[in-house]
Amino acid sequence: MAVMPFIKSGFSQAISKFKLSVYLWLIVIVVSLIMVLPVNFQIRTALGHLSWPENSLMPFELNLVEIFIANQNLLGSYSLFLLVTLLFSAGLVVFLSGGLFGQMINSGDIVSFPNFLAAGCRYFGRFLLSLVLFIPFLMVFFLIFKLLSAPLHLWSAQAVSEWPVILAGWLSFVLLALLWPAFKVILDLVRIFMVAESKKVTVAYASALKFLGRHFFQMWGLYLLVSLAVVIISAVWLAIYRLLSPAQPGSLIVLIIAGQAYVLFRLLARQVVIGVEYNYFSMRKES
Amino acid sequence: MKKKIWLKAITRCLILVISISLLSAISGSAQPRPVNYQLEVELLPLTAILLAKETIIWTNLSQDYISDMHFHLYWNAFKNELSTLAREARREKYIKRYQAKEDEWGWIKITSMTTADGQDLLPLAAFISPDEPPNPHDQTVMRVPLPEPLAPGQSIKINIEFQARVPKNGLRTGYYKDGFFISQWFPKPGVYEESKGWNCHEYHLNSEFFADFGDFEVKIKVPSEFVVGACGEEIEKSEDRSAGKTTYTYVQENIHDFAWTASPRFIKVERWFKGEQEVTPEEYEQLASLLGVDVLDIKLPDVRMILLIEKQHRNQIERHFRALKAALKYYGLWYGPYPYRTITMVDPPFRTGSGGMEYPTLFTAGTSVLLEKDVLTPEGVIIHEFGHNYWYGLVANNEFEEAWLDEGINTYSTGKVSAVAYGPGRIPARFNGLPLSRLFKLPAVYDWQLGRVISSPVAKLDPIVTPSWKFYNSGGYSLNVYYRAATSLFTLERLLGEKTWARIMRTYHQRYRFKHPRTEDFIQVVNEVSGQDLNWFFQEFFYQAKDFDYAISYVETRIKPQKYQGIFDDLPARTSKQSGEAINQASVQKKDGTKQKIYDTTITLRRYGDIKLGSGYKLKLMVEFEDGSLEWKEWDGQSRWVRFYFEKPTRVRKAVLDPEGLWLVDANLSNNSYARKGPGTKIMDVTTGLLWIAQNLIITIFGWL
Asked: What is the pLDDT of residue B578?
């Protein structure tokens, strides 16, 4: 199977609608700021006037640990706040998925923030339901993972040195990373059917499973291929980021920009995955 | 043939006699020792069973008539879920490791116990529960009534035969497949304290041990493919080829415990620590001057270092020896020469739960296959566990009742040796067994820096001087007796100065070598050598659960107003004019004629903690102004707060409470300083890092959902 055309067209589609990543980035940064600001406030209150490093008896990280310990009483309420924010985020990302799939797939829609939000609203209910119906698949996923990783656990349990334990741990991790896309493509494809063919959720599931019956390995392979590219680019980014790390004047700004560029890259990668999956679907749906 | 056997037997006897004489000369103290052990043990690895014989000669060194003996049978702590240790482990729900499967329980069973003249002691023997709360199901202490009371100076010889099963999920001892670490394995008498009776506690989750000094001769029989290490010196090895077994004989005088290990996966490596090579003449001179002793008094002897390391860690052999050499050097120089001829360092057999433990002349370290150079975990463990040969091994405090005396002092000593030999070590970060240093690096810290931060939360939980099993939980125990105690000692060192402190520590060690000191003995030495009454320090920091936290609470700077509002007519006329001028003078004239503003600065210090400074001690406050001028203030710290006022033509640049960093035990050093320009970039760096993590977390959820 020639994979490049799908990747190429998926990538082109994502780039042409790059604005979507920017919208997502904006929303994600606002939610993240909500999560982080209380911590920032606490750090500023406790350490904003610290005489550092001249009179410091310890690295700054230990000052952070110290104020964390000193403010343990706030930990419970902050954890609750984080939990609520994360739950809200989970709901939000379903909404954002609706916006993203809607704008990526509906070629008639002009990419704009209002249209993006409108698509999010339009598909939110159905996407949420598709997620609920995905739970049995998740259970199958965990069952298969448990079965496949059982020999690794056995190997690890019988080991007489650390190496099998470490290797088994990482092989389990790799197994998880390989297996997850096999299930994730189901959900993605269901949503493609819902958006591209305006199908109801259950019908979309049936259609997606039927489609995957014929094209499962290709779609899984495509997903893995894009994921591999993301991993490689992430590693390169990390290497560059580490070169920037030493504290130099102005380096903080550069580090912030590099960090945010990576966030944008990850969002774009998600767009590319959807683009590639949709292009494959479009070209193969009649076959 | 016969002649050869005779020659061999005579040679062995000679070796034994010479070895014991040499050991006496080197390690022996002139004090009589109450106990003498002869042990013979065979390990049956397939069933993890020990078959053993023990002969104890115990002498009554007190003036009491003693009618019974109390024995520790530690392995019965792993016998069932009702032992004191198991109950305590269950209470701390996160500890799962002591839960055993049906065939994995550990135990010790005495099958025969007779006096030298054949009287059976077992019929009247009974398990007792000496500690509070009593546990009738615990079988770790056995009381054995004697046929007749033992008079002062009288000895009793007891012959014991016992079987024991090595616990699979033991604490400090255990086995995994064919790797064994065997400690606390034989019936051991408690310590008899004159007019008080037996000091023989149950085996608790958080407690270690206490025993009398004695002489050991131990024969260990194992399958021949096993590599063996043990306390003391190996003086004989005989192989029975037909049975495929080898018997090793170890001897050591003047120690109070005996542990051993056996595994076919060990590599045995030996090196010598040479005092003359490891310490330069200049180092000897400097230290002799610091301690006020003659150079000859601190010369270090040669020591045979034996390393038993798992094959998987063979690339770390030199790391292990380097750390051990550093420990032998600095503990020897600071506290006194290591008195034994050998030290055995064991990389604990995989999954035996025996890492990081100390026994006289033997200790277990602990490392992992993938280890960065700047992460000093194995080095820290090696230095610490070797250091226990000084604090626990030689100065043998009661670990059940006052664990800080060895763990706290030794954590302090470990921090000192690590700092001198290595500098700060990086905090390890690992995921799934892999080091993450290529992704990001946690900071490099000194032991005392980390120790003081992590121990501050337990200050109000328990006093440091608390019996080990009476701490709130394991965290409270370890953070108090290890780190809070060490932090308090680092503070004392800074308060008293390096020279005084070095002399205190050496005096304490030398005075209580081969003895069982208590906390009051340590305090007495501190007071005596320092010439100060520091009882208040120990009372506050060691005997009470209080915290210590002084802080700069508030710094306020205001431009002095041009004019004050209000009515000032109650002042005398002349003074009124002068005062009025002064009141309205909100600026001073510079040399060039321009006017400069006057600033009113108020600095408020607070005592958040319950501990107050001792009488005669003061906290210093250093205030640095933007024109470079400095002002120093002192506070006796008795009240809850104090306020200092400054009126200067310049603003405060920074203020630091305790600028010399003497009070390391302060629970929160982050509130001890104020700078007009704080670490804004650092805070921004942290915030953006957290933001980035939060963003990626949400995006990951986005990818999943």
From this structure: 45
Q: Which domain holds residue B508?
A: 434-541
End-to-end CA distance of chain B: 84
Q: Looking at the structure, tell me whether residues B256 and B270 fall in a common domain.
A: no
CB contact under 8 A, A97 and B456: no
Cross-strand pairs, B630: B624
Closest CA to B342 of B363, B326, B322: B363
**Residue pair B388/B198 in contact by the 8 Å Cβ criterion:** no
Q: What range defines the domain where residue A49 resides?
A: 4-284
Q: How sure is the predictor about A5, in pLDDT bands with cuts at 50, 70 and 90? A: confident
Q: Under an 8 A CB cutoff, do A36 and B687 touch?
A: yes
Q: Is B650 contained in some domain?
A: yes
Residue carrying the six token digits 């198991």: B86
- Residue B702 inside a domain? The answer is no
A283: closest CA of chain B, how far (Å): 24
How far is the alpha carbon of B690 from chain A, nearest alpha carbon, in Å?
7
Cβ–Cβ below 8 Å for A263 and B692: yes
pLDDT tens digits along B598-653? 999 999 999 999 999 999 999 999 999 999 999 999 999 999 999 999 999 999 99
Whether B463 is in a domain gets the answer yes
Residues B224 and B273 in one domain: no
Contacts of B703 in chain A (CB under 8 A): 184, 270
CATH of the domain at B234: 2.60.40.1730
Domain of residue B670, CATH code: 2.60.40
- Residue B458 falls inside a structural domain: yes
Residues B235 and B350 in one domain: no
Q: What is the pLDDT of residue B587?
A: 66
Average pLDDT, chain A: 93
ipTM score assigned to the predicted complex: 0.95
Shared-domain flag, residues B354 and B282: yes
Name the percent of chain B lying above pLDDT 70.
91
Q: What gap in Å lies between CA B375 and CA B316, rounded to an integer?
A: 13
Q: Where is the domain boundary, B248, B264, B280?
A: B264
Number of domains in chain A: 1
Could you give the CA distance from residue B602 to residue B655 in angstroms, rounded to a whole number? Answer: 11
Query: Which letter does DSSP use for residue B427 in this model?
Result: P
**3-state class of B242 per DSSP?**
coil
Token couple for B195:
């007019």
Q: Which of B218, B219, B222 is nearest to B178 (CA)?
A: B222
Using an 8 Å CB-CB cutoff, list chain B residues near A26: none
- Please compute the mean of the pLDDT values over residues B292-305 and round it to a whole number: 96
For B:636-695, CB contacts with A below 8 A are 654-656, 659, 661, 664, 667-671, 673-676, 678-688, 690-692, 694-695
Chain segment B535-589, per-residue pLDDT in tens = 999 999 999 999 999 999 999 999 988 777 888 776 555 444 444 444 455 666 6
A28, B695: Cβ pair inside 8 Å? yes
